[in-house]
Design a protein that fits this description.
A five-stranded antiparallel β-sheet has the order 2-1-5-4-3, sandwiched between helices. The protein is elongated. It has two domains: 116 residues, PAS domain (Beta-Lactamase, 2-Layer Sandwich), CATH 3.30.450; 183 residues, 2-Layer Sandwich (Heat Shock Protein 90), CATH 3.30.565.10. The longest helix is centred in the middle third of the chain and has 38 residues. By secondary structure, the protein is an alpha+beta fold. The protein is built from ten helices and twelve strands. Strand 1 and strand 2 form a beta hairpin.
Length: 321
Amino acid sequence: MASDQQALLAAIVESSRDAIISKDLNGTITSWNRGAQLVFGYTAEEMIGRSVRLLIPEERYSEEDVIISKIRSGERIDHYETIRRRKDGELIHVSLTISPIREPGGRIIGASKIARDVTESHRAAETQRLLMREVNHRSKNLLAVVEAMVRKTAATTPAHELVSRISQRLQALSSIQNLLIYGEWRGVDLRALVDAQLRHYPEGRVAAQGPAVMLQPPAAQALGLAIHELATNAARYGALSTPAGHVTVGWKIDRSSGQPRFEMEWREHGGPLVDEPKSTSFGTTILRRATSDALDGTVHAEYRRDGLRWHLSAPMSTVAV
């Protein structure tokens, strides 16, 4: 009966995916299961009779001294997380449970160690920490944009229009954030960005065309807000405020000067004559300075008799992914 139980126990140990190792009080390995080979890469033949320090990075040798000291005093060590080295040199995170081995008379003669590879859980936790830091960073940036937007809008907008103007701008910013999230913050398709900002305007009144461009997140935010302001101004004062007016939005990549440049132009046709704004509102700040600053480019606006023309030129390196 006892032999059957020992055979069952040995089978369980051998089939475990955790490393189950025994060693004497000098740290010499006396048994090594298949799980230990999976975790550390060494076979039993390579490890039995050798020091367990082979698995321990040099700077952590003192840990083994502490472990052996505790085992000699009869202590058990539960779920001690540390770093060990595989045969291929890779450092892995392991969770150790170590118990004293006693001879029939009760004298401690060694230690039984169970080592579980927890590297993936550590990587997942680190990824989560990085993501949380990134979310925190982006949230702060977004809140800074919202704060500036609300403050500037409140300073330059009549009271009866204030709520609607802030709401419209927040909706524009929200649609940009939705595209960024959909693209997992890697980038935003420019055509999708333009369509999102212009979808509220009658079909046929706005035409957009240009090559496929995947925008960097900061560029997507800057261009999205600029297009929103251009469309809003056109609907209130420009080409989209009259039945016959229309707008064309076009962009291209200019490679003639060696370093590729992104060129975008907004043209209004058939609208009323619009004078250049005399004051600086949030909208004009976005269209004149914020967009050029964000993209390290230049912005030029012409208030022509046939309608507004707004042109942006910026290095592709600051615009595209």
